[in-house]
Structures are given as structure tokens and as C-alpha cells.
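Researcher: I'd like a structural prediction for the single chain below. Treat it as a standalone chain; there are no partners to consider.
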Amino acid sequence: MSDYIIRFIPEDIHINLSENSIKIIEKLDWFENFSKFMFNEKIHFADAGHNFESVKCPLCKADLMEWWGNAMGSAYSDEEGFFDIMATTPCCRMKTSLHNLDYSFPQGFYKIMIEVMPELNSQITPENISNNLLDITGEKWRIIRAHY
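Model: Treating it as a single chain, here is the predicted structure.
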């Protein structure tokens, strides 16, 4: 049996949520029943699981799958986690971060993540949750639909 999880990560990897923001989020209907916060000191990668199909350059749209694996390896250490996610694409030499590449299903890096189980109804959609989070934190949140 496969699992489906909806993840929300802030576009700003280094954002710190205020205690007040956390308390407000934890009291929302969609959070109370089906969600959890994940806080990390190190940067982690939130992948889309089986939904991960490709990664492309955000500028010229060149396929970066082969390069991406090496770039991820170079940006990671067991001691520090992902310590430097800045990169220069091999295709058009664009300076960017691994977080801002064009993933076929959204994925990215985080220190804070909210995982939501998909028991949402038609009135509580991932887009509604993302908008709630933007309203509360002032930060845009990326929706990651992970399938395992």
C-alpha cells in the first residue's frame, strides 16, 4: 500500500516562525487532526517520492538529472546535512540554489516543514492551507505532494 503525504515548506529556507505563529497554526482545524511540524537545525531535502520525475534548469529548461545527483552529493555531509545548496548550472552557467531548480513535482529544502495527511475535504485543500500559512507567517509556502 502506498502513502500520500502533503508537505509544506517555506520558500525562505532559513525562516524562523514566531511562537505566536506556531500556536495559531496548531489551533487550525486542518492542523489539529492530521498534521505535524518538523523543526531541524540542519537543512533537509523534501522530495516528492515516486512523483519525482525530472529536474531542469529554471532558465533554459535543460535536463539536469545527471548533474543534479552530483550537485546534491557535493552539497551534503553526514555531519552538517546540506551545508551549501548554491550552485551554477552546467547548461547556461546560471547561479542559483538547488532549492530553486525546476522540479517536475515541487520539491525543495527546509529547516521547518509541516506534514499533512491527505484526509482533507473539498473545503480544506493544499492551496487553502498554503494561503493560511502565508497569512499567518507572511511567508510563501511550497506545496510538495509526496507519494511513497
